[in-house]
Amino acid sequence: MASETRTLRFQSDFKPAEFRARRKRLMDAMGGEGLALLQGAPTVPGFDTFRQTSDFYYLCGVEVPDAYLLIDAERRRCTVCLPPRNERRERGEGPLPCAEDADFIRARTGADEVHTPDRLLEHLPSAALLYLPQAPAEGARMCRDTLLWQQQQIDADPLNGRPSAETHFMRRVRSIAPNAEVRDLSPIVAEMRVVKSPAEVAVMRHAGRLAALAVTEAMRFTRPGLIEYQLGALADAIYRAHGANGAGYRPIIAGGANGWMAHYYRNDGLLSDGDLVLMDYAPDVGNYTSDIGRMWPVNGRYSPRQRELYGLIVEYHRTLLSIIRPYVTPEAVMQEAAARMRPLIEGWTFSRPHYRAAAMALLDFKGHLSHGVGMSVHEPAGYYGKPLQPGTVFAVDPQLWVPEEQLYLRCEDTVAVTEHGCENLTAAAPLELDRVERLMKDEHRDHAWLGITVA
User: Fold this and answer.
1) Which of 43, 54, 256, 310 could form a disulfide linkage to 65, CB 3.0–4.6 angstroms apart?
2) Could you count the other beta carbons within 10 Å of the beta carbon of residue 303?
């Protein structure tokens, strides 16, 4: 059956010209020689939803299991390899782009050729130079740093030692192309992903708005007696109702003492009167995410101590946002912020000496501009040590630790550097303490449809 008689789905966030431009940058970075070969995500086990790996999607936008992408830097050509049509699968899951839909794929990706994967065996044996991804591929709710950590645990297990998918793929390709020199493709693509295009920022702007909406509604919904995960349920409903693919990462919803754990994930604690709750949770929108962090009082009013410490973090946060700009290094931004904050901290009223010590440590902390954000919540390449470029997207996340009381406080936004400063993509979530309290005083919206009731 011809592809024109079937309704095929394809992403609509990026035009073919954008994928062609990305591949051109890649071929230039390869020095105009060699082949780059990427393996897409496999067919999912069970009934999970398929999500293409980030680098593969970044270079062609194809969201089909068991696909391959071959980029020939010398010939300046790109080949997408897809499985042949599987009519039985289509009857159960609906039409899926396949090798027979070559015209459809070429039109939407800008690729030059479309074949089945077995045709790769014609190109690889004679290859002299191959670029293969050697870092773990990011899928749904995955970051490269956590995937590397997982592989370290596997390697340390004396009864496991299973090689990574990338290692297995590289060994397989080496057996087919034994004479080829193999280079690592991963750092090249990771560096390309640091600076986002206007189209990427537009997708992330949507993700940021949804993250801010979920946090705002969670503030309005919070009261003593809820369970942490109930705030996550509210966020999940908002994300899916607004077209997100689900979560960009697992939620951090930490009330009271649970907030001391930076990546707390159990989310099964009771929200108690007098405690703060931290919420850090953002959606996956078109394979891009955001990052956000807010802390608010479970009972709707910050205590004097909470104002003393979290209020200072908010001031530091606002200072950072006001001075982020292009063509300066992150280190210079943090030095300027520390210089502005020093007199404020020196004049701040602290109720305990170790609070002052913790606040002074803020001036020396080097991680306030925390990490890149994009297709994963922790983008694989960094942006420190070089001038910020327009389109760089990262998390602004000043953090304060009080180890004497196991207190950890932070607030976080995702920003995109612009030609004149930065755009806060998650700015719609209340930041100032008085504004949060006013919001929480309002009559709560009716969330009965969630099936959540609190006496």
Assistant:
1) 43
2) 13
Q: What contacts 262, CB < 8 A, 6 or more positions away?
A: 408
Q: How many CB atoms lie within 10 A of CB 425?
A: 25
Q: What is the pLDDT of residue 455?
A: 47
Q: What is the CATH number of the domain that holds 305?
A: 3.90.230.10
Q: Do 406 and 319 lie in a common domain?
A: yes
Residues 138-187 have pLDDT tens digits of 999 999 999 999 999 999 999 998 999 999 999 999 999 999 999 999 99
Distances, alpha carbon 330 to alpha carbons 236, 327, 359, 368, 382, in Å: 33, 10, 21, 9, 11
What is the enclosing helix (H) or strand (E) of 91?
helix 87-93
Instruction: List CB contacts of 298: < 8 A, sequence separation 6 or more.
Output: 222, 223, 224, 255, 271, 272, 273, 274, 275, 276, 277
Q: What's the farthest any 2 CA atoms get from each other in the chain?
A: 76
As a whole number, mean pLDDT of residues 359-370 equals 95
From 192, 224, 250, the end of a domain falls on 192
> CB–CB of 430/216 below 8 Å?
yes
Count of beta carbons in the 10 Å neighbourhood of residue 312: 22
**What is the spatial distance between Cα 80 and Cα 414, in angstroms, rounded to a whole number?**
33
Of 131, 158, 192, the position where a domain reaches its end is 192
For residue 383, which of 339, 419, 329 has the smallest C-alpha distance?
329
Residue 455 lies in a domain: no
Report yes or no on 181 lying in a domain.
yes
Cβ contacts of residue 280 below 8 Å, gap of 6+? Answer: 251, 252, 253, 291, 292, 293, 412
- Tell me the Cα Rg of the chain: 24
Q: Kindly report the backbone phi and psi dihedral angles of residue 34, in degrees, each rounded to the nearest multiple of 5, phi listed first.
A: 90, 175
The residue range of the domain holding 30 is 3-192
User: Exposure string (b/e) for 228-239, b if CB count within 10 Å is 16 or more?
Assistant: bebbbbbbbebb
Q: Phi and psi (nearest 5°) for 350?
A: -115, 135
Tell me: do 350 and 268 sit in the same domain. Answer: yes
The pair of structure tokens assigned to 195 is 């600076």
CB 292 within 8 A of CB 248: no
State how far the Cα of 213 lies from the Cα of 206, in Å rounded to an integer: 11
What three-state secondary structure class fits 242?
A: coil
pLDDT of residue 3: 44
CATH number for the domain spanning 174: value is 3.40.350.10
pLDDT for 447 equals 56
Structural domain includes residue 177: yes
